[in-house]
Amino acid sequence: MATTALATTPETYSYGPHDLQKVHVYNVQQKEPGLSTKSSNQGYWVIYIHGGGWRDPRVLAESFGPTETFLQSQHASLIREHTIAFASIDYRLSAHPNFLQDRNTTDAATQLRNAKHPDHLHDVQAAITFLQGRYDFGDRYILVGHSCGATLAFQIVMGKVAGAAPTTTLPKPRAVVGVCGIYDLRLLRDDFSKEPIYQQFIEGAFGPDEDLWDRVSPAKVSDPDDEGLEAGWPNGKLALLAHSAGDELVNLSQFLAMKDVLERWKAAAAAKDNRTRQVVLLQDLQEPHDDVWGNGKELATVIATAVRELVKIDS
Predict the structure, then answer these.
(1) Range 34-43 burial, b when 16+ CB lie within 10 A, else e
(2) Which are the contacts of 54, defined by CB distance < 8 A and separation ≥ 6?
(3) Cα–Cα distance measured from residue 257 to residue 254, given in angstroms and rounded to the nearest whole number
C-alpha cells in the first residue's frame, strides 16, 4: 500500500570535521516553543546506522527517509505514543574502487573516503555521544542497523572490539535491532568465496588480518567475562534479528550465527533470574537486501515491532 505521508526534512548536525561525520535528526514529537530540547523520560529514540559495506557513498544517512515516512504513516499511533525522535548516522567510509577520489585534490580531513577500522565504529560512538550531549536520553534508545550497520550496532554493545576504543562511558541502548546483518566476517567471505567482492570490501574496511576479522565480529566474540555481549551489555533488554528470504547479498547463516550468541546472552540472564531480557527473531521479510531499506516498508515494520516489544518489557 502506498504511503501518503510527506517525507520529513531532518535537522542535520556535525559531530566532527569530516563531511560524513553528520547525524540527521527527525523530530517525531515537536516541542512547543520555550520548552527544553532535552527529551523526557517518556518514549524512546530510534537511532539508525546505514549499511553499504563500510564503503558505498550512495548509501548514506538520508537512506532512512523512506523508512521514516512509512513509520509516520503506517505506524503513526505507535510512533506518536512511544517514540521521541529518530536519528540516522553518517560515518566515514572506506575507499571504493568504483568511486575513486583524486588524493591530490581531495581534502583528506573533510572529504577523503579512506576510513579503516576502527574509524567507522569510533564515528558511531561519537555520533551517539553527540546526541546524548544534546538530548540526554540515557539508555532510552533503540539502536538499529542494516547490513554492516548491524555489525556496528552490535559492536556498540560488545564488551570489547579489537583495535577500538572501549565504550564503557557510553550509555548502551535498551534494544539493538540487526536487519540483514553481517555478524561473522570470515563466515560471510567463505560462504561467498566465489565472489571476490566480499574479500575486497571486508579487507578494505578491516585489512587482511583474518584473526582481527574474528575479534571484531559480533557472532565470534563470545567470551562472557570480557569481550562478549554479556560483559558489554548486561543491562540490555531486547535484541531483535531480522532476515529476508529475498536477500541476495547476506545469507541466512549470518542470522543463525548471531541467533546462537543472543540465545546464550538471554540464557545467561535467565540463570540469574533476570527474565526481562528478550530475543526476537523475524524471518518473514521478503525483499532483496537493499530494497528492505530502499522501499522502507519492511524496515519500518521491523522497527515498529522492536518498539512494541520494548514497550512490553518496560511496562
Answers:
(1) eeeeebeeeb
(2) 93, 94, 115, 120, 148, 201, 204, 205
(3) 5
Distance (Å, whole) CA 311 – CA 140: 11
Tell me how far apart the alpha carbons of residues 312 and 291 are, in angstroms, rounded to a whole number. Answer: 29
Task: Name 64's Cβ contacts closer than 8 Å, sequence gap at least 6.
Answer: 24, 26, 48, 50, 86, 88, 293
Catalytic residues: 147
Contact 23/90 with Cβ under 8 angstroms? yes
For 117-160, how does the pLDDT look when each residue is reduced to its tens digit (9 = 90+)? 999 999 999 999 999 999 999 999 999 999 999 999 999 999 99
Residue 186 and residue 31: Cα distance in Å, rounded? 46
Which residue is listed with cell 555481549? 229
pLDDT at 31 over 50: no
Indicate the DSSP class of residue 32: P
Q: pTM for this structure?
A: 0.94
For residue 37, the model assigns a pLDDT of: 41
Give yes or no for residue 314 having a pLDDT over 50. Answer: yes
For the stretch 56-66, pLDDT in tens is 999 999 999 99
Q: What is the mean pLDDT of residues 70-99?
A: 96
Backbone angles phi, psi at 201, to 5 degrees: -75, -30
Find the helix packing angle between 119-135 and 148-156, rounded to 10°. 60
Strands (E), the chain: 11-14, 22-27, 44-49, 83-89, 141-146, 175-179, 238-244, 278-285
